Amino acid sequence: MAGFIEDNRFVVLGSVAIVMVGLMGSGFLLGDGLRRAKEADREVTVKGVSERDVTADIATWSIRFSDTGNDLASVQGSVDRQAQAVRTFFTEAGFKQSDFTDSDISLMRDQQRDAYGNPLPESLTVSRTIQLRTNDVMKARAAYAKQADLLRAGVEMGGGSVNYTFTGLNELKPDMIAEANRSARESAQQFANDSGASVGKIKTASQGYFSISARDGVDCEYCDSSGANTPFQKVRVVTTVAYELN
After folding, report:
1. Backbone conformation region of residue 9, classed left if phi is above 0, alpha if psi is from -120 to 50, else beta
2. Spatial distance between the Cα atoms of 148 and 153, rounded to a whole number of angstroms
3. E strand map for the chain
4. Where in the chain is the domain with CATH 3.30.110.170?
5. Which residues partner with 48 through β-bridges?
6. Backbone phi, psi, residue 85, to 5°
7. Where do the TM regions start and end (predicted)?
8. Which of 10, 126, 174, 188 could form a disulfide with 243 if both were Cys (CB 3.0 to 4.6 A apart)?
9. Which has the minimum average pLDDT: 57-66, 170-179, 209-218, 224-233?
10. Which phi and psi angles does 221 have, rounded to 5°?
């Protein structure tokens, strides 16, 4: 009987020892896994920027003018004279006739009534737009600076400014993206050096919009890229990259 108990005691102790070894091994594997998971979570997210100063290569200027009266023939004649004054202005500024053209004309009728409900003479407004489009952006800029001459010539302008557009963006994109990526990598490396780590592989990356704005304007990652009111512009792109840290 005593031998049986002794034998069972050794069996129980052996089982306990095996369980303890298993728990120790599981604890080691769990701890090592947590350590690796924690290391895998170490990352740094940085932005890379690339900018280019450019000069617009297309200028467009739409001049809208109108006149109002009760007689269509006289109103139309006034608008025709204003149109001729605009064409003369562009010609004297050095532009070819093919550089400017009529882009819009409209007629608006307005029937008012007096205090007794009786109809007043119909008011007629004729509006017209002549648009200049040229690759000589500096000549367009100089002409715009003299727009007061149009007022002196009797052109009743309804506002509008020159819009300058840069069309060479596609040629710049590859080099600018590469430069932005290098800038992001340099920022990540500096961060890693400061924290005693090394930069690993890229985890995620995204490219921002290419924006075109005034060269002396405010930096804007999501600005419109359709043009600006100055020929002197700045192209900008921002990339966002997350790197692993080892």
Report:
1. alpha
2. 9
3. 43-55, 58-69, 100-110, 123-134, 163-165, 199-207, 211-214, 232-245
4. 41-55+168-245
5. 239
6. -65, -40
7. 12-30
8. 188
9. 224-233
10. -70, -30
DSSP annotation string for 16-64: HHHHHHHHHHHHHHHHHHHHHHHHHT-EEEEEEEEEEEEE-SEEEEEEE
- φ, ψ of residue 220 to 5 degrees: the values are -150, 120
What's CA 9's distance to the chain center, in Å? Answer: 79
Give residues with Cβ within 8 angstroms of 14, minimum separation 6.
Answer: none
Largest Cα–Cα separation, the chain? 133
Entry pTM: 0.71
Nearest residue to 230 via CA among 158, 152, 161, 164 = 164
Residue type, 79: V
CATH class as words, domain 58-165: alpha beta
> From its phi and psi, is residue 49 left (phi > 0), alpha (psi between -120 and 50) or beta?
beta
Within 13 A of 186's CA, how many CA atoms are on the CB side?
9
Strand, helix or coil for residue 3? helix
Distance between CA 57 and CA 137 in Å, rounded?
6
Tokens 């608008």 sit on residue = 79
